[in-house]
Amino acid sequence: MNPVIALVGRPNVGKSTLFNRLTRTRDALVADFPGLTRDRKYGNGQLGGKLYTVIDTGGISGDEEGIDAAMAEQSLVAIDEADIVLFMVDARAGLNVADEAIANHLRVNQKKTWLVVNKTDGLEEHSAMADFWTLGLGDPQPIAATQGRNVTALIDKVLAPFPERGEGYATPAVDKGIRIGVIGRPNVGKSTLVNRLLGEERVVVFDEAGTTRDAIEIPFERRGRPYVLVDTAGVRRRKNVSEIAEKFSIIKTLEAIKECHVAIVVLDARSGLVEQDLHLLDYVLTSGRALVLAVNKWDGLESEQREKMRADIKRRLGFADYADLHFISALHGTGVGDLYPSIERAFKAATAHWSTNRLTTILQDAVGEHQPPLVHGRRIKLRMAHQGGSNPPIIVVHGNQTDALPEAYKRYLTNTFRKVLKIRGTPVRFEFRSGS
Ligand code: GDP
Ligand code: GDP
């Protein structure tokens, strides 16, 4: 599991500026679960051979309601999930009572905490630091998040105790079978579905292993084929009501997405589609994971509710329409067995290999059918295509002036490749390269 860094501090000290600098913000996942007063943002970053996750806590206001309340609701969760806390203060604003209150919390916390003094640009470092020694959180670390000054050096220092992990965000190897992640917000029925998937006829479940925080792996076999279930929040183990209240962990969800080949994203037909479903789906897609959609709690629904759910999915999940869609009842087991063929198909598409010949033929046929437009009097030429990667598949198209290719034409090509190659269940990435 990658080290997790939480950014904590009062509003306006520069947390989101630093967050954006440290992460590939394209991948950021926003936690906007009901009950949170503010959003938490999760993003991944990399420094040399080390990967990390950053949580931006949005800010502790230190207002009338009391620092304790705000802290408890928002930042404590982030601190809880983190290995490292970066407590940010503002060199320009100087020391503030809210800073002191936050520091009091952090001093009793067991987490490794760094005191980061931001906005030191244009200031004399020594005098800018002087105020903050009194917080009793060790050496103040001067940075300027907007310029990126000292940021790399700080992260390097912060990550020093953590080992290098060279494997990047690549998908795990297929040694013990297809790895399935069951993903979804709290209460959609993940735990019920996991137990169903494992409780199916002719399913043999092997040992459950794993630590408390890493994603738990459950190897099993169905009809002689090996699979590994990547359990997110220990759903399999939850047995009683009090455990159901157990905190939903975004970190574990991110980990499961990273560790699986195929994600089953579970939606709840009773509560309908909500923002958080879209965030999770978006994250699965940007991670390049193969996808199966399971609309759960389909049992006993009124027909209007069914119609509404279908319409919502059509309207809002267009970006995921290449995934197989299943309407299931995890509670009764209806439709659960049908998930397996979709999982197999999605995995097969995600790991397929196509020859350069085949891809180039598809490209040329597509171009023959519809020519790319003229740019400055010259026609954009697309010559050949080859596969640049797998899981998710990457198709690299070579030609001239490809920078000028309109989005609509790219979409046309994407759809054509998808259709001809019968790709279902996985995102496909396209890269366009010019060279003459
Ligand atoms: P957050 O509320 O803690 O997330 O703070 P933001 O990242 O939104 O930053 C608040 C303001 O401080 C913005 O106007 C930033 O441009 C500014 N800011 C952030 N970092 C720096 C810095 O290193 N130097 C200066 N001068 N301004 C900064
Ligand atoms: P999780 O938090 O996503 O793991 O959700 P759980 O599996 O704990 O399920 C949350 C609640 O939804 C429980 O009360 C389940 O009994 C109920 N539930 C799960 N699946 C179904 C279903 O298919 N139909 C109905 N009606 N209820 C379900």
From TrEMBL:
The keyword Manganese appears for this protein: no
GO molecular-function terms, A-Z: GTP binding; ribosome binding
Domain EngA-type G: 3-166, 178-351
Gene Ontology terms describing biological process: ribosome biogenesis
Binding site for GTP 1: 9-16, 56-60, 118-121
Domain of life, source organism: Bacteria
Keywords assigned: GTP-binding, Nucleotide-binding, Repeat, Ribosome biogenesis
Coiled coil: none
Residues bound to GTP 2: 184-191, 231-235, 296-299
Family recorded in the similarity comment: Belongs to the TRAFAC class TrmE-Era-EngA-EngB-Septin-like GTPase superfamily. EngA (Der) GTPase family.
Role noted for this protein: GTPase that plays an essential role in the late steps of ribosome biogenesis.
Subunit and interaction comment: Associates with the 50S ribosomal subunit.
Protein name: GTPase Der
Organism: Modicisalibacter ilicicola DSM 19980
